[in-house]
Amino acid sequence: MKNLVKQQLREGKVVVGYWLTLPSPSVAEILSALPLDWLLVDLEHSPVGWETLEDMLRAMRGSAVTPLVRVPSGEPAVLKRALDRGPWGVVVPLVSSGEEARQVVAACRYPPQGIRGVAGSRASGYGATLPEYFATWNEEVLVACQVETVQAVERVEEIAAVDGVDVLFVGPNDLSANLQRWRDLEWEGFRQAVDRVLAAARRHGKAAGVMCTGPEDALARVDQGFRFIALGSDARLLASAGLRATESVRAGLLERGLLPG
After folding, report:
1. Rounded to the nearest 10 degrees, how much is the dihedral formed by the CA atoms of 226, 231, 235, 238?
2. β pairing state of 167-170 and 15-20
3. Residue 260 falls inside a structural domain
4. Which of 131, 142, 181, 196 is most buried by a 10 A CB count?
5. What pLDDT is recorded for position 117?
6. Total domain count for the chain?
7. Which domain holds residue 109?
8. Which residues pair with 91 in a beta bridge?
C-alpha cells in the first residue's frame, strides 16, 4: 500500500490533477485514463453524496491516478466517513490555525498518533486487508489544508509546522474574496499572501498547492513554486471545450452567411 502522490511530493516533484464536481462515475472513469497523478472528488461545493463518492472511487480503481476527496469540513466525523470510503487523502477547507491543522491530522490518523476510528470499511477491503491498512495508513495518508482566510495567512507558519500536514493549498477565489479583493489576483496584497504561503511551505518542507485556470496558468504556478497543481474541474473542462467548439463553428457559419438574423 503506497500513496504515490505523497511519495512524489516527498521527492520534490510536481503532481497534477483535476477536481471532480459532477456526480458521475463515468466522468471519473474517463479522466482517470488520462496521464494525471490524482483526481479529487469535491464534497464541499458539489452535489456528490457518500454513495456516489464510493462509485466514483470505484471508477478510478485500476487506473494510475491517486484518488483524493475534498471534505465539506474538518470535523472528525466527516473526515472519518470520507476516509472510510477509500481515498488516499483529503483536502480540508478553512484551516486557519496550527491547532485546527493538528486536529485535522489527528482525525485522519489511527491511534496512537490520532483518533480515527477503526472499521472494516471499503478502504480496507471491508475488513479483508484491515491489518495491513491499519499498519501503513498513518504514513501514507495525504493531508492538505486550505489556506483561504486572512487568519490562515497570518498563521501559515504554524499551520505549515504541523507534523502530518503535507500540502498548503491556495484557492485564489476564496483567498482573494477573504482579502476583500475578489479575483484581483494582481493586487499586491494578494500576491504577498501567496508569497507567504510559498515561503512557509519551503521552510517547513511542505508542498504548496493551487487551483489553476488552465495549462498556461499551471506552468506559471509551477515556476512560482507550487507543486500540487489542480488544472481545474471537470465541469470547467467540459464547459470550456464546448464553448471553443461552438464558437469555432459559429465563426465559420458567420463567414458563410448562414447564421440567422
Report:
1. 160
2. unpaired
3. no
4. 142
5. 98
6. 1
7. 4-255
8. 70, 144
At a CB cut-off of 8 Å and minimum separation 6, what does 30 contact? none
- The Cβ-side half-sphere exposure at 253, using a 13 Å CA radius, reads 10
| 45 in active site | yes
261 lies in a domain? no
Quote the crossing angle between the two packed helices 76-84 and 98-108, to the nearest 10°: 40
Question: Where residue 63 sits, what CATH number does that domain have?
Answer: 3.20.20.60
Per the listing, cell 485500476 goes with 62
| DSSP characters over 178-215 | HTT-TT-TTSHHHHHHHHHHHHHHHHTT-EEEEE-SSH
Residue 63 lies in a domain: yes
Residues of the chain with pLDDT under 70: 261
**Integer Cα distance of 214 and 218 in angstroms:** 6
What whole-number distance in Å separates Cα of residue 7 and Cα of residue 253?
51
Q: Could you tell me what percent of the chain has a pLDDT over 70? A: 100
